[in-house]
């Protein structure tokens, strides 16, 4: 992995522990983006004419990467737009289970549309809390982040499969923006009905791209009948009236979605199993050392599995000192959030620990 660090110029002068905020642009992706716009510059509409074929190839790349069918893979500029499109088509009488303090793009999006809402608490017993809430409130929909953006607590994927098997009528919708690109994942065999992701974090796709994955028949089930009736009674081209068109309305940017496709191929060449193993090693080391320093909340320490995100006990003073030492992090919640990707190293973590020992 160390040989790949030269792809990321920012790492020459900084210890970047902030992928949860923004993934990095890297040299070979920059080359692709410059070539893309140069082709557009000299060809204009001739360059744009085959965009339908190009975008179809992007869908195919995403579907292959996450083990889904191409027809049930939809392009969207970001998770939030895709998620709100889903919510706008659902009956407001539905009851939605949310996780307390989950990302506002989920919780506020549901709350401001008038759905009935119930909550499960995010702590060391997250999975049990979810099942208890389902038994008590009997929700129609469960919408959540696979990884909590503040403290990195991650829901167990085997639990989701169990949940779907036990409660098959609940529509399970997951935001995977803080997850995709960190582990090998098979959407087809998961317990998730709909999974969305923005591509600018661990997928390193840059901004303005994302996708929604649907299990077989789910897209049809969540499409309003008024839309389907109107589509069946018009002669408009299917690019305006298909089930996918409700999400992919208007022009899609080949620059942004081409960047996502390029990065998915980049990650594939590195190997998701290799990335997963490396991140796991970093996270094990980080969790052990941070726990020894008493910088992690008890709920995180108690869980046997964790994500690539940690929230350290710390204030603005410590955050500013980290910045002075060229260690890039984020202030989130009541602490300082760090996040790890394949380009990070044990040496990066040791630099962080040295600063923490000196200034905490």
UniProtKB/TrEMBL annotation:
Keyword ATP-binding carried by entry: no
Domain of life of the source: Bacteria
Residues annotated as transmembrane: none
InterPro entries according to UniProt: Aminotrans_V_dom, PyrdxlP-dep_Trfase, PyrdxlP-dep_Trfase_major, PyrdxlP-dep_Trfase_small
Keywords: Aminotransferase, Pyridoxal phosphate, Transferase
Molecular function, one GO term: transaminase activity
Occurrences of domain Aminotransferase class V (ranges): 55-350
Gene3D superfamilies cross-referenced by the UniProt entry: Aspartate Aminotransferase, domain 1, Type I PLP-dependent aspartate aminotransferase-like (Major domain)
Protein name per UniProt: Aminotransferase class V-fold PLP-dependent enzyme
Gene source species: Aquimarina algiphila
Organism ancestry: Bacteria, Pseudomonadati, Bacteroidota, Flavobacteriia, Flavobacteriales
